[in-house]
Amino acid sequence: MLEVNKKSWQLITAIFFLISISLYSKDDKKFEYFFKKLYQDRFETYNSPVLAVDLIKPQFNYSDFQDFPSSIGINIFYGFSRESSEFYYENFTYHSHEFAFGGNVSSKLLPESSLDKILDYWKFGVGWQNGYAYNLDFFKIFLIHQGTMNWNNLELNYQTDIQNLEKLQGDLRFGTSYSSGVMINLYKSINIGLFYEDYLVYPRYTFSNHILSWTIENILQRTPDYFEEELVKEFQEYYPIYYFIYKTSISSLLYHFRKGNMNWPINSSEPLNYNSIKIDLRFIF
Are residues 9 and 212 in contact, defined by beta-carbon separation less than 8 angstroms? Predict the structure, then answer.
């Protein structure tokens, strides 16, 4: 696996920001649109309040140890959502959303849980999502990609022989996640979604290493947005589907590497991870 030393990330990060500055010029209409889509539309477009509740059934894993007690969880989200068709879309609209959230995953929530082996896990954080919505005759369907930065508190009431698992318990631990899925507008403000989610909880946090990993992810994730005008003209009404597949594939690949190396491509510690299918009930007012 590729390893990057501490001096290399500084060079890579510096190059990235220099390229960004050089792109952002009055003569570069493509970057002007890219910047407008990312930032200015959240001020120019009406922001709709959003309240959402997620139900999840996670599968925890650490160093191939999977003997965690069965658990279920609930997350509550609040934020603001926007849709925009001001650019060059005809059959679909662009959707973006920022939010804060908190939640709990616990084996105690299951009716037949054993009190001899309890998992209790709290989390809170901030997140963002984007994608496109198809406006069909009787309903609207959203293709959504979501990411979060979060803080976590894990407690187990039993001992394991897994080395370093105790480093993930107690206090607050930094983490990240991604999820991808489909949401359907059922009636007016009522929406329901089905998502796949990957979560990472870091045993320790190193700012510089995380920034490099995060920068690489964002360059890859945002590349289609920079070339969107050409891509929409090429793929037309199929573009939202290809965009969704691309972003989901990038996240899935990166999180595959990070499950054994939390700041990939920098050599770093192994995080606790869990994946889940979540059902999302969302009200967009």
Answer: yes
